[in-house]
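Hi again,

Forgot to attach this to my earlier email, sorry! This is the prediction with PXG bound. I've pasted everything inline since the attachment limit keeps bouncing my files.
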Amino acid sequence: MGVKTGLPDPFERPVMLQNHRPTAELQQLDAAHHMHPFTHGSALGKKGARIITDAQGIWLTDSEGVQLLDAMAGLWCVNIGYGREELVQAAARQMRQLPFYNTFFQTSHVPAIMLAEKLAELAPGDLNQVFFNGSGSDGNDTNIRMVRHYWAAMGKPEKTVIIGRWNGYHGSTMGAASLGGMKGMHSQGGLPIPDIAHINQPDWWGEGGDMTPHDFGIARARELEAKIDALGEDRVAAFIAEPVQGAGGVIVPPESYWPELQRICDERDILLIADEVICGFGRTGKWFGSETMGLKPDIMTVAKGITSGYVPLGASIVSDRIADVVNDIGDFNHGYTYSGHPVGCAVALENLRLLDEEGIVELAGTVIAPYLKKQWDSLADHPLVGEASMVGLMGSLALTPHKESRAKFAADAGTVGYICRERSFANNLIMRHVGDRMVISPPLVITEGEVDELIIRARRSLDEALERVKAEGLMVAAS
Ligand code: PXG
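Structure tokens for the complex follow:
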């Protein structure tokens, strides 16, 4: 029934295939009633969605009983892997005891208190106070309001502009999508909101031209300085960035980049918001991307890996410097019904306990990440691959028709990436494409044997994609 992986069967229990309607019927109902995010709905309706029914470890099973290697950890979030009964029990216990209570009107509850303490302990520096959100997007909306409120409380109400980066991703709400630099998102629904600005990303492979990576990293960081000068320092509240861009294609900045940005933020009194929604909780090989990349944020946005995706939860982890002012000035008129949801907090606590006590983050960073990097780097010799990058357990391949010149394809961006992604799905490997970059972010619990299997499937997918790209006459560089 399942596809042979060459590995021991990762399932400890039989795959349940009989508990749902036939695939075609499910696809029909999906097309009729379910609107998918970031999807051309009617095109998907014609093709039919792949329906996932079951998961264990790093393996998914679809409605036809086929096993897929999930090299994306769901959506960059299932850090602990699928099927951890301890998280199920934590949720069930909490639902029985206190399924919901709010934290608005001078009340609190044990899971929120314990999780806030744990996050303060894990987070670097003086990031000691926590505002709970439901997701990464509404976390970044919290941050917009909090930093503007902070500066107003400091007697500088004109410091409202927040600078983000083109091709950065911070979520899908009006505020978060405005902070992000996805032009396809800005073109729908009247974005960006006022007082948001953007600078260019540190993508040396794609945009570095003849510069060395070092010089390019410095130049891209200094765009922040130039933007602050152009806007006026007294207008700029904060700079927001992912320590390593995820949704933008796993863009690993040159080493010179973050130290220079940190210098600029410090010298110009600009708050630094690190969006750790993907990078947090072990993804980069340490607990937070800020540690891996050496930055000292004033606020960190976290979500996804905080619960390993088992239930939704997000948080803004805030420095004492900001939180003390916000707490003192009066009411902060902001919050969500599900801020600090007890079930989310209970699952997060159990998830963080396991990541910590089982040494999952430690092992991922010191053993699995170097092994994955070595194997992933071996794909750089493939004729379709220009650059292989990997930080911790997030990696990308830049596809190119001509390695030496780092050329882009003449075909529309994403045409070749999509072909490679289709071949990858055909080989039962979930590997995404972002334009013409292939990206992975497997669960932290992936084993060395499973890494080998991932690489075998990725290479096979690249081979098949190359064949098709050549056959369709697409192996042509843009002029
Ligand atoms: N910040 C970052 C850095 C993210 O990656 C968000 C904020 C928003 O989080 P929520 O929980 O509101 O989705 C994200 C989300 C993709 C993809 O295609 C990436 C995300 C979400 C959906 C798709 O890579 N990241």
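The longest strand covers residues 127-133. Residues 1-6, 10-14 have pLDDT under 50 and may be disordered.

That should be everything now.

G.
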